[in-house]
């Protein structure tokens, strides 16, 4: 039963060891809401999030200790449950700073990070607008799904009249490790995922690739990050009819151990020059790990923090399943560059990107202050 501090120079939920469960929600501000509404919402969210991450109710006696004549301040389903490693991470979408037609609703248009714009169109995108975008986001991760859902439910309730959910996603199994102390989990294609992820122990790489630095612009975002979310549908049934050898060729690693096809064990660096005889590269030229690797992406890497999802099934009886991909990076250009290299990815035959969003993740709040305060 881990308890992570809410206040700090960086928000929790980024380098925190990836928990097992996710409830993610993207919100739009209400029409007519103004600057004071936004500031008060961020203050109210901060207060409640700081309490819930410590295993407390939204307010003291919130669930059953209040007036019997009023609806309880806390919805109650987490009463008696531990904090379960809950982290709550807040983000700001491009449309919070100014609407698509340029309206500065909250007086913060001048503060918009230059690189915080809707992601460009990528080859193969099959995006549904109702599964992407948003003015604000909240990522709630915990080791107990009820705790994560309780967090999003109560924060949505607090937002009533000021912001409402635009889209949301439940994730049931982490698909990455963000600490060397964690075992590598598997995604729904059955492969270990997160082997070559940025790990919190590698503080130099974390500073270099994940967090906005003190000399980067804008200054208010220093200690923050950028989050990209991509809802990626997996064509599970096609994958499940694919030979093991082909599955491994597509990823560039073996399925059992997660070792690169150039040899070694899980954490051996892939050797992209290695050949299997007859001049055939051991790791195919369109294998996922080759095209996603920093060596072909100007040294860029990502802190991946995605989750598996199954949202029921479609009308043909196929699982509506996939990977809710999330990555944290110092600049959106890291994701954009890698996703562009992946245009040639052998994996594309088996996946479809259906949702997309980008958020600036402000630095952590000091106790007594609130998340996003440097903006105002
Ligand atoms: C590595 C699966 C989408 C970026 C990997 C690995 C697997 C995998 C199995 C190897 C193990 C590891 O190092 O984690 C998938 C699946 C995807 C997907 C099934 C879609 C459903 C993406 C996307 C991006 C991405 C959209 C970014 C644009 C990376 C990176 C690596 C990686 C940066 C590490 C490469 C390295 O340094 O060796 N992925 N991935 N992946 N993936 Fe993906």
UniProtKB/TrEMBL annotation:
Record domain Dyp-type peroxidase N-terminal: where: 11-172
GO biological process: iron import into cell
Main subcellular localisation: other
Cofactor binding, per record: Binds 1 heme b (iron(II)-protoporphyrin IX) group non-covalently per subunit.
Necessary cofactors: heme b
Keywords noted in UniProt: Heme, Iron, Lyase, Membrane, Metal-binding, Oxidoreductase, Peroxidase, Signal, Transmembrane, Transmembrane helix
Catalytic activity: heme b + 2 H(+) = protoporphyrin IX + Fe(2+)
GO molecular function: ferrochelatase activity; heme binding; metal ion binding; peroxidase activity
GO cellular component: cell envelope; cytosol
EC number of the protein: 1.11.1.-
Localisation: Cell envelope
Domain Dyp-type peroxidase C-terminal: 184-365
UniProt similarity note: Belongs to the DyP-type peroxidase family.
Protein name: Deferrochelatase
Species for this entry: Orlajensenia leifsoniae
Organism lineage: Bacteria, Bacillati, Actinomycetota, Actinomycetes, Micrococcales
């Amino acid at each position: 039963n881990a308890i992570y501090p809410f206040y700090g120079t960086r928000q929790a939920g980024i380098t925190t060891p990836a928990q097992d469960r996710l409830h993610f929600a993207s919100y739009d501000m209400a029409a007519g809401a103004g600057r004071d509404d936004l500031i008060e919402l961020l203050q109210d969210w901060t207060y409640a999030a700081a309490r819930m991450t410590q295993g407390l109710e939204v307010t003291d006696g919130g669930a059953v200790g209040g007036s019997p004549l009023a609806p309880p301040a806390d919805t109650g389903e987490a009463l008696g449950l531990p904090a379960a490693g809950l982290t709550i991470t807040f983000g700001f979408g491009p449309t919070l700073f100014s609407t698509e037609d340029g309206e500065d609703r909250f007086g913060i248009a001048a503060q918009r990070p230059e690189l915080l714009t809707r992601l460009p169109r990528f080859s193969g995108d099959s995006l549904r607008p109702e599964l992407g975008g948003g003015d604000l986001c909240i990522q709630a991760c915990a080791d107990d799904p009820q705790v994560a859902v309780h967090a999003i439910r109560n924060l949505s309730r607090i937002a009533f009249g000021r912001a409402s959910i635009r889209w949301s996603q439940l994730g049931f199994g982490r698909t990455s490790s963000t600490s060397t102390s964690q075992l590598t989990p598997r995604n729904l294609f059955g492969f270990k995922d997160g082997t070559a992820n940025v790990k919190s122990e590698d503080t130099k790489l974390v500073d270099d690739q994940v967090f906005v630095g003190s000399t980067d612009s804008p200054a208010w975002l220093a200690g923050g990050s950028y989050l990209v979310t991509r809802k990626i549908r997996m064509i599970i049934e096609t994958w499940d009819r694919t030979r093991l050898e082909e599955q491994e060729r597509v990823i560039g690693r073996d399925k059992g151990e997660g070792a690169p096809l150039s040899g070694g064990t899980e954490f051996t660096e892939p050797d992209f020059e290695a050949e299997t005889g007859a001049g055939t590269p051991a790791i195919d030229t369109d294998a996922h790990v080759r095209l996603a690797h920093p060596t072909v992406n100007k040294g860029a890497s990502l802190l991946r923090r995605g989750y598996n999802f199954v949202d029921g099934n479609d009308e043909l009886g196929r699982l509506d399943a996939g990977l809710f991909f999330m990555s944290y990076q110092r600049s959106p250009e890291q994701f954009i560059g890698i996703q562009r290299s992946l245009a040639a990815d052998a994996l594309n035959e088996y996946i479809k990107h259906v949702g997309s969003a980008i958020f600036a993740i402000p630095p952590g709040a000091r106790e007594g202050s609130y998340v996003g305060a440097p903006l105002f």
